[in-house]
Structures are given as C-alpha cells and as structure tokens.
Write a structure and sequence with these properties.
301 residues, alpha/beta, seven-stranded mixed β-sheet, two-stranded parallel ribbon, 9 helices, 11 strands, 15% strand, globular
Length: 301
C-alpha cells in the first residue's frame, strides 16, 4: 500500500487515570482513532468513504466525556482502524493482500474468520466499495504496525486492568463501540445497545445482568451478544476467574450523530448522561464481585 511504513503521526493511543481510578471500570475505545498519516490516506481508493464507514464514528468523544463525569480510567486509540484493527488477533490476516514471503498459514489460521470477511487485522474490503487499498502491502509492514500500535495498546490495556484490580479487588473493561442502526425484527423494536460478553466467557454474569437492569430502568431496548458478542479484546483480556472482567458495548450511532451519521448531533449530551449512569451501576456490581472490603466500598457509593 505504500513503499515504506509510516508510523502514526501522534502517539498511537492515550491512557488516563489508570492508577488513580475512582471506579473499577476501564473505558476503552479501540475503533475511534482518526489520526491518518498522509501515506495511509494516499493508499486508499476512496479515503472519504473508507474513513466514514470503517470508524466507530466519534464514539471516542462520548467515551472521553463519560470518563470525565465518572472518574473512570480511559484508553482511547488514536491510530485508525484502517491502519490496524485493535480488536483482531495478530494472526487474523488476509494473506491474499500481502506480497512477499508469508508465514506458515496452518500456524496462523486460527483467527482468520474475520479476515475472510474483509475485516481482519488489516481491513481489506468494505461493502459498497470493495477493496480499500490501491495496491498490496508487504509482510514487513504488518509487523511494523503490530510493533508500534497493536502490541503496545494491548500491553497498556492489560497493565491498566491489573492496576485497577490491585486497587479494587476486581476490574471491568467496558469496550466501547458504535454500530449502524439495527433493523426491526418482527414486532420488536430494534436494540439501541448491544451488550457482548462472548456468551458468558469474558465476564461474571452479574455484570451484564447489572447493565441489563440499568437499561431496563431507562426504558431502552437492549440485545445480548447478537449481533455483536465481542471480539479479540474480550477474548484476550476477559478472565473472570482472575477478577478481570470484560464486556463490549455497542451503541446505535443515531443516538449521538446527526442524520447523516457523520458528525456529533443533538443526542450527545443525553447519551453521555446515560452511559455515565451505566458506568456507576457497573462499578457497584464490580464491587459486589470483588467483595466489600477496604476502598472497594467506594465504587458502590
């Protein structure tokens, strides 16, 4: 896609309040990055279309405001998903888009199902566009992006969760995403939020239950694991038996964007208030999971 890999023009991500958490809930936003190096834009067939479609459009702004209201730690990717998808495993590569020597495909194929759909570690195709890139890329470029973006992000995320657990006795990762509006199915109103916990594998059942109870009080339709159960982030960092819980939250973009689903809209303030309430409810549930000892009581207050 370019002759030589260009690292992100700014730091690949921003981490705040990891060691001074007011609540045991870490908000992470892996798909909100918008810092596009010029070489990356030049390699795209249609940059404007790609950037709008592939991002979780402006959900980073929501995450930042929720963290500010609640005192939650915050991890926000600046590097765009088009460069490398932080919610994909290192092995989830469509090697058909890569030139030069390739690894033993039998060894790296375990996570390849996302790549086959065009949205692997390096996204290749988008519906309505086809191929994103003008030309293939070199295998060494993938390694460079892993080394400068993907691995540091996940190392920082893992360390932050351990720090929160050390302080509170348990930690919850709230992996924040946004989704296109879902279609109605039969007589049911389409969900405005989808809670994913990898079908119970990434979190104690009490935590998604607390989220469902909160949204029920708010009177909004919510779905569980369908169509989004969570990806590599939850698989890697969710370890409920060790007090490390992870859930994914998908938010309907029409709740906070304009009619074109492009720019922040009138619903931003109300969404921030609702998600801040969710974080507080989840903090109480995490405190229950951890036990009511020492400073962990503060999360329930």
């Amino acid at each position: 896609m370019q002759d030589k890999y260009s690292p992100p023009e700014k730091t690949a991500f921003r981490l705040e309040n990891a060691t001074t958490a007011n609540v045991p809930v870490l908000i992470a936003v892996p798909h909100g990055g918008r810092d596009y190096p010029a070489a990356l834009r030049d390699a795209m067939r249609d940059p404007a279309f790609t950037m709008k479609r592939i991002e979780d459009r402006h959900i980073d702004l929501i995450g930042e405001r929720v963290a500010a209201q609640t005192g939650a730690p915050l991890l926000v990717a600046r590097t765009p998903r088009a460069m490398i998808d932080l919610n994909r495993a290192e092995s989830d590569v469509d090697w058909g888009m890569v030139t030069g020597p390739k690894p033993d495909l039998n060894r790296v194929s375990r996570h390849g199902h996302r790549a086959h759909s065009g949205l692997g570690l390096i996204p290749r195709r988008l519906q309505g566009l086809g191929d994103i890139w003008r030309r293939p890329m070199e295998a060494g470029e993938i390694e460079a992006r892993l080394e400068t973006v993907h691995r540091p992000y996940h190392a920082a995320l893992g360390d932050a969760l351990l720090s929160i657990r050390q302080r509170w006795g348990a930690a919850l990762l709230l992996d924040l995403h946004s989704m296109p509006p879902l279609r109605s199915s039969g007589s049911w109103a389409p969900a405005k939020y989808v809670i994913g916990d990898r079908f119970g594998a990434s979190s104690d059942a009490a935590l998604p239950a607390a989220a469902f109870a909160y949204f029920a009080r708010e009177g909004v339709p919510v779905a569980h694991n369908r169509p989004y159960a969570g990806g590599y982030v939850l698989e890697r960092h969710g370890a409920p038996a060790r007090g490390l819980h992870a859930i994914q939250l998908e938010v309907d973009r029409s709740l906070y964007l304009d009619e074109a689903l492009d720019a922040p809209g009138a619903g931003c303030d109300s969404l921030v208030e609702r998600l801040a309430g969710l974080v507080r409810a989840l903090a109480s549930a995490v405190a229950e999971c951890a036990g009511e000892r020492g400073p962990r009581r503060e999360a329930a207050e």
